[in-house]
């Protein structure tokens, strides 16, 4: 009885066929697994009369060996077929890989870096988790000066005896300017792109983090005229050759004099529209001549050197270029929003 069963299985196993890895695995399970046909023969083996045990044992082994070889050779065949197909089928439809897009802030940041690079500025980088010394103190913010309130941020570690040792999330990339001045003697010509943080409620118009690019130029005889011409060139490169600029007096602790720069509204060409609130102008950055105190605090002789600095928000410029109405869109990573920038890549 058992011998007939083995013979039948042997025939079956010799003729096995399968072409996909899944089919082959199913065969392995059917014949060779613990609950498979061959294991169940082993169970029956216990009831075989002693004088037949040897013959049956040999047959079962032959069956097991044959099944193993057949399944292995099916597996090899399947692998070589797959390899061949991969090499040869040049007509196969490509995998549907969708390219992503660059983030709009990256597009605009790169454009701005490009413009300043062409004017000889190099890139400088620094930490986002910073000490008070570089964010505020060396930028001429006195320890108890209310100007610090304009840039309330997040405190990682506070030191009650010495505010300059507080560890905070930087509220502007001016901290990178401080680090560059500490380690480099003029001429200095750098831009500092990076993420900055503010303690602000998140709304369509404000966020607890955003991106800045600040610039710093220090050399002998640098004047306000140099600043104005560089910013005019920048505005025209970014918003078109007809762009006009105007500088309004302002206040920053680290520059004197300080100014806010507006560009003529690129939507209405300066005639006045809803976008520029009918003024013809839109604000794009802050700037000024570096306060001599800042130079001295950072180890640069203010009797020999002077310089200018400016700082802009990348979100603000991106909003002006692409009229993004809600600041939160930049950090939500909704692909429908991001794909709107396919063409700008
Ligand atoms: N740090 C300023 C801010 O975050 C922006 C700024 C204004 C930077 C004038 C400058 C500058 O370097 O000269 O509001």
Automatic annotation (TrEMBL):
Report any one BP term from Gene Ontology. Answer: phenylalanyl-tRNA aminoacylation
Under the heading Pfam families, the entry gives: Phe_tRNA-synt_N, tRNA-synt_2d
Q: Where in the cell is it found?
A: Cytoplasm
Chief location of this protein within or outside the cell: cytoplasm
> Could you say which cofactors this protein requires?
Mg(2+)
Keyword annotations of the record: Aminoacyl-tRNA synthetase, ATP-binding, Coiled coil, Cytoplasm, Ligase, Magnesium, Metal-binding, Nucleotide-binding, Protein biosynthesis
Highest rank taxon of the organism: Bacteria
Q: Which EC number applies?
A: 6.1.1.20
One GO cellular component term of this record is: cytoplasm
Note on cofactor:
Binds 2 magnesium ions per tetramer.
The record, for Gene3D superfamilies, names: Bira Bifunctional Protein, Domain 2
Which CDD domains does the UniProt entry name for this protein? PheRS_alpha_core (cd00496)
Q: Which part of the chain is the Aminoacyl-transfer RNA synthetases class-II family profile domain?
A: 108-340
**Which positions in this protein are listed as binding Mg(2+)?**
256
Q: Which residues form the signal peptide?
A: none
Instruction: Spell out the reaction equation it catalyses.
Output: tRNA(Phe) + L-phenylalanine + ATP = L-phenylalanyl-tRNA(Phe) + AMP + diphosphate + H(+)
InterPro entries referenced in this protein's UniProt entry, alphabetically: aa-tRNA-synth_II (IPR006195), aa-tRNA-synth_II/BPL/LPL (IPR045864), Phe-tRNA-synth_IIc_asu (IPR004529), Phe-tRNA_ligase_II_N (IPR004188), Phe_tRNA_ligase_alpha1_bac (IPR022911), Phenylalanyl-tRNA_Synthase (IPR002319), tRNA-bd_arm (IPR010978)
Q: Which family does it belong to?
A: Belongs to the class-II aminoacyl-tRNA synthetase family. Phe-tRNA synthetase alpha subunit type 1 subfamily.
Quaternary structure, from the entry: Tetramer of two alpha and two beta subunits.
Annotated protein name in UniProt:
Phenylalanine--tRNA ligase alpha subunit
Query: Which species is the source of this protein?
Result: Marseilla massiliensis
Q: Which gene encodes it?
A: pheS
């Amino acid at each position: 009885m058992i011998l007939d069963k083995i013979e039948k299985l042997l025939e079956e196993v010799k003729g096995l066929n399968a072409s996909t890895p899944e089919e082959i695995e199913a065969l392995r399970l059917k014949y060779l697994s613990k609950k498979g046909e061959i294991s169940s023969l082993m169970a029956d083996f216990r009831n075989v009369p002693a004088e037949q045990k040897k013959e049956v044992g040999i047959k079962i082994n032959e069956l097991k060996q044959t099944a193993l070889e057949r399944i292995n050779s099916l597996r090899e065949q399947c692998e070589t077929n797959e390899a061949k197909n991969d090499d040869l089928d040049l007509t196969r439809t490509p995998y549907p890989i969708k390219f992503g897009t660059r983030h709009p802030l990256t597009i605009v940041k790169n454009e701005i870096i490009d413009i300043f690079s062409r004017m000889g500025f190099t890139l400088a980088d620094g930490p986002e988790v910073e000490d008070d010394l570089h964010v505020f103190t060396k930028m001429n913010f006195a320890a108890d000066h209310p100007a610090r309130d304009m840039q309330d941020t997040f405190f990682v570690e506070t030191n009650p005896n010495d505010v300059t040792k507080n560890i905070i999330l930087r509220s502007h990339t001016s901290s990178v300017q401080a680090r560059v001045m500490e380690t480099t003697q003029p001429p200095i010509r750098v831009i500092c792109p990076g993420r900055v943080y503010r303690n602000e409620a998140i709304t369509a118009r404000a966020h607890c983090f955003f991106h800045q690019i600040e610039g710093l130029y220090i050399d002998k005889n640098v004047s306000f005229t140099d600043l104005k011409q560089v910013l005019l060139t920048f505005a025209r490169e970014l918003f078109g050759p007809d762009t006009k600029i105007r500088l309004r007096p302002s206040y920053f602790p680290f520059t004197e004099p300080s100014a806010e720069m507006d560009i003529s509204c690129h939507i209405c060409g300066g005639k006045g529209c809803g976008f520029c609130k009918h003024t013809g102008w839109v604000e794009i950055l802050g700037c000024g001549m570096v306060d001599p105190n800042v130079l001295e605090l950072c180890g640069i002789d203010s009797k020999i050197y002077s310089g200018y600095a400016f700082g802009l928000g990348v979100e603000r410029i991106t909003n002006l270029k692409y009229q993004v109405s809600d600041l939160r869109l930049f950090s939500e990573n909704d692909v429908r929003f991001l794909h709107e920038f396919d063409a700008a890549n």
